[in-house]
Amino acid sequence: MDRLKEFISNHVLGNPTRLAIMLYLLPRTRVLFKELLEVLEITPGNLDSHLKALEKAGYVKIRKVFSDRPRTAVEITSKGAQETGKYLKLLREILDEV
Amino acid sequence: MDRLKEFISNHVLGNPTRLAIMLYLLPRTRVLFKELLEVLEITPGNLDSHLKALEKAGYVKIRKVFSDRPRTAVEITSKGAQETGKYLKLLREILDEV
């Protein structure tokens, strides 16, 4: 049952929107803000606040990219990839017990 | 990617504490409030508020049990078992894609 305690104590990835962002980023490394908006169908304000929480935790970096026009890109950090991997391992172990 | 949208739109089970309660209840059908407190290591007020949200969604029933002294028991409903099963299936599908 210690896995359940560990599961509920992760306040960064315990939020489904933040976990979904990390799951989408994990194989892609870097995505545009606009793409995340379309994939997750959430509001820009909502996405922005979750990205800020992920950045504060050190899981992503938010960058301004300039090509024809300025865009916002989100990059996963090695810490973010590692912590997401650990969380997925924990989730899989919990699901295997059910 | 529709699975990610479905995942983030479940506001009942999207909360890790509520999911943990349902995961613990699923094979046991009925547990005491006191036991859930010990298993999850959360405060009584916190557990109470999550159980009320689960009861409002129709996933559990909260009952007063009288033996030597009054206790509170939590029972999973068939709707709760069904919805938790569906959510776990979705989670497994998402994890299989990673």
From TrEMBL, chains A, B:
InterPro entries: ArsR-like_HTH (IPR011991), HTH_ArsR_DNA-bd_dom (IPR001845), WH-like_DNA-bd_sf (IPR036388), WH_DNA-bd_dom (IPR027395), WH_DNA-bd_sf (IPR036390). GO terms for molecular function: DNA-binding transcription factor activity. Residues 6-93 form the HTH arsR-type domain. This is Transcriptional regulator. It comes from Thermococcus aggregans.
